[in-house]
Amino acid sequence: MSTETFQQERRLVGETDSLVLEVDDIDDNWTDAGFPRDGLLSSPGRNRLKRVCLGLLGVTVVYLAVRRAVFWSNTTAPSSSNNVGSMPKNANSTSVSPTSSPTTKKNPPSPPASSNPLTESPVGTNTPLASPTQSPKSPESETTINTIQAFSVLDPVADLGILAIDRPPGSRPPRMLHKLKEKYGALPTNAWYQNMLMIEDNAEPVSINRAYAMPYVVDASGPIPGLRTIPGRLQVGDSTTEYIVEENFGLTLGLTTNSNNNQTMSNRRYMVTDATQLAVTLEWHDGSMASPIVRGMPYGTMIYEKGKLAAGSTRSRFPTIASELPVESIRIDNQQNVMLEDGSRVWIEHELQIALPDSDMTWLIFVSERVQIQRSPTSFGTVLQVVSWGDAETTKDLVLRVTQSETCSSGRNPVYCQQEFKDYAGRKDGYSDLLRKHAHIYPGPNASFTFDFFHTGEVDESRLVFNWDARRSENLHPLAVGDEEMLVFALPHHFDMKFIQGSPTEERFCWDSLLGWACAVRGSKWEVLDEPLTSVSFRALRPPSPWVIPALVTSLGTDIQYRIPDNYRRGAGDTYFSGKMLAKLARIMVILEEVKHLCTNPDVSYSDACSRSSLPDDESIQRALEALRESLNVWLGKTSEAPFVYDASWGGVPNCGCYFDGNGCGNRYPYCPALSDAGLNFGNGFYNDQHFHYGYFIYSAAVVAHFDPSWGKTNYENVLLLVRSIANPSRDDNFFPLLRHVDPFRGHSFASGITLPVFRNGRNQESSSEAIASYEAVALYGATMSQIFEWEGMDQERKSAEAVHSVGRTILSMELRSAKRYWHISHEKDDDDLLGGYRHGVVGILWQTMFQFQTFFGTAPYFVYGIQLLPLTPVSEQRDGLDWIRSMYSDFSSSCTGDCVSSGWSIQDIAVLATGGHFDDALDKVNALPDGAFETSGGNGHSRSNTLWWISTRPDVEDPISVLPVPAPTSLPAPTAPLVITCDKPETCTPEVLDNDAGGFSCGARIRWLITTLNFSEQDACAQVARDEYPNECNGC
């Protein structure tokens, strides 16, 4: 193959057009019905470029059917896959036909002789990396379906030599997870139900050990052992919106003893017997009852195994419905109201309806068998025991299901009556009947999320499959004849995609949830298309504009000399800021590569600009590459002062942690303080923020491999450890949990891990943009390595890398969609009735049951906006829609003065200004920034070159955003006095001490940063730096 042909094969090529499959356009009908829709990829004014030379992702699939043979033996479930990124084929589920995967080349072409062929890619259209196996397409449409295998199944310790660590007792998994551990190996650490898993041994669950299953919050701390299903309501404020629940308004399905005097069982502890990304299954009292808890569940479900309830003995245990409130009326089978006194009994065929006047709520309880219930005396509320079911010979399990049918039964609760159904008036009976129709279809423990990939013509897309593992009871409600689909609530972003299987109910029934209207969908399995998948590249969709080239070249001449601070080069420090600094240098290198190509192969438009510029020489690039490569070698190897370690207890690769003593880490492996100190390294040792941290490392590794393919091949499995720790798609890799951070139902990641005590509002994520960047990095790494392996003829490694590429793109697309839906607030377009009084243009921290306009490090608006706008990489263009930029800029920009500029957060403000069409103003602002702005907390992951690159690659904006003019000063401003620091110790806290190096920054710089950025008092800032962090270097202060 000629060099020219090879370069064309390596071309960075275009973005996809969207594809419309010939399926029922259910979501369009839903939109016509009035449901708000703002598709991820439908922004007006976008440049649509066709992609060529895309790869067929030929990867094998491994199917595992996981069953519980004992407890679930009386039900029949469809087979399910244990691979998130694979799914069984169903010819009836889609209109496209699978073809065979591409075969491996027997004699792959060799790259041309070059010291670095991967740096010789022509800029072309500056668009995404092509998949390496793609050959030129014929005009007719082709479809290839590819599924995902494990990236690797190598043992991190035995095969790859990573250091092993034993967690201290206080952060090990509780015994309640031992069945899960035996079944899967690795355990979830950031799951939506994580609060329910974090209960210390011998402790009882309390109300904070709960999960927001949506639309209900569930916990196991009700009045009796069992599952309490709790409705909620939105409380909207100008800066905080919270989903509030009153626990005593809930209804509990559980167990009690002795039907004569209701001796309530005191032990509420449970075991976790199964956990997937959609479901967690809890089991009480040796399996006598179990509850599958799933996302979007309209009903709480409890399954009782008759053989373990010892019916008829003095130790009998009875299925029980318990309310902490008194019952006003009881209706049997929707026909008659009955008055049940303590001790009286009644038979039920299908349903029980109870009204609770104190909450003004009505509940329906459905039974899978004919049952006899008894009202039992209690010291609280109401207890209804199932004292008999079926006939004497039956061995069938009993399934009880509970659901709230009305929130405003009589109008006595003004708070809940204001938050009825959307378009609910006059339709209470319709919703109750809908619940009756679907009550006999309930979820099993193997509810799963899977996905696979389509390549059709020039489009890559992913099919997301939500399989609820539906089970069926034989006791059908009279209204349920002919309806065999499960009922589940879906979130707004689900309706932004195309439903292929599963559909909204004929009438629209929607509850308000924290994320918007949650609406009922019929479907025991959903299949939705995410189309097209977001493409990734080291470069933007267009090259830098010629008019910026002189300034960019000048900046690159300085920035290519940037070196990571010495302590980070030795692996002595945290993994967040070190990762940002590694990725900073990596971005400088790829920008210089692109500009160098523009100026060495210029067209007319670049000839003048390049003739006035003097590019750094090749040795500068090689020195930068060597510095970046050496730093990565330290972090990825065993020589790091704070090495990555393998944690077999939970299954992951945390960092050992570093107590920096001024010279380096005062601790050494095997003493790893990050696994016992949740405040160290942003909680990395407790699986907090790992995708943020590791995304920067993975991006840097992709760049080094891009410039040095040999290094990429040698270190593939070592880098893959970080990828597997945050993005493992397969149960075959039992060293890591599935997609650690990702909640596929909500479509985004949760950053918070296994810290104790758990937060009452559940899991959270602050920076949606860093989550997006982390999966961009995963996809880029996979694309880069698959190209390298393709040219080397390394087929198995290529398949692994292609899987990394595809999984990264899929999660990236999910994160983008949810960030635009749930973090970016545009009051002109979003539902005012749900946003209420929330007055800001962004969410700072999104919890499971709350969102806030603040960050974990401050409440200044520029913090809140800024943390959703970094880093600046090519995918950021897909992240920041112009409508959102237009609505939020004023709030952001008006706050970005003074400390915002000096601490580097104004870099994001400049980027937004350029995105909004004000290129000249943005260029003036970035040129005016002091060099120190790129070394501060808000700017140390940026560079001047990267900021200029961003400005110069923005598309034209026909209608630029409004920018308030800055009034001319009436007089010269008074000079600002420098911040003088003495720490109240002028005799010892001298300028010499303040200038001492403390981990790459001076003692004074660190103290000033805490004062100006985090609003510390001088006394507190001095104490933290000089006493706690750097006592040797900064001791005088």
UniProtKB/TrEMBL annotation:
Residues 90-107 have a biased composition (Low complexity). InterPro entries: Endo-beta-glucanase (IPR005200), GH81_C (IPR040720), GH81_N (IPR040451). Residues 558-949 form the Glycosyl hydrolase family 81 C-terminal domain. It catalyses: Hydrolysis of (1->3)-beta-D-glucosidic linkages in (1->3)-beta-D-glucans. It comes from the Eukaryota. Keywords: Carbohydrate metabolism, Cell wall biogenesis/degradation, Glycosidase, Hydrolase, Polysaccharide degradation. Residues 75-85, 118-143 have a biased composition (Polar residues). PROSITE patterns: GH81 (PS52008). GO terms for molecular function: endo-1,3(4)-beta-glucanase activity; glucan endo-1,3-beta-D-glucosidase activity. Belongs to the glycosyl hydrolase 81 family. This is glucan endo-1,3-beta-D-glucosidase.
